[in-house]
Amino acid sequence: MKYLILVVALAGSIAPAARGQSPEELDRALNRLVSDYIDLYTKETLPQWRSLFLPTFSVASTTAAGAVSVRGLDQFYGSQERGFATTQKMGERLENVRIERRGRMASVWADFVFWQNDESSRGRLVLLAIHQREGWRFHALMFSYQD
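-> structure tokens emitted (147 positions)
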């Protein structure tokens, strides 16, 4: 019986390490994902930026009329490609970023400033991320521009 308890205790202490990364490593990788969301958002690195999102990624945003627009990854990415193709400069900056990780799920809340050429808009967003074998990826985005 003592050996069974010892085996069970050892298995429990080994299991977290065997399952993957430490909490600190998960936090570092999640912070890298959030940094890449902004750093890779350029005309030249947009294909790499797309890899931050799961194929099932969805985006919901409010419209000026108060309705909700929902798009999948292809529609969302296509609008970013068109934006970069038709503007001189385009980008986004996150402010007041708050990241909350619970195990292998995370939310990223932030204010954002989006600009195209000489016009800029402010808003708020929340990104949902999930960790899988390949690392952290974004699952969903909700955002709204400020009135």
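Strands lie at 53-62, 68-72, 90-102, 105-116, 119-132, 135-145.
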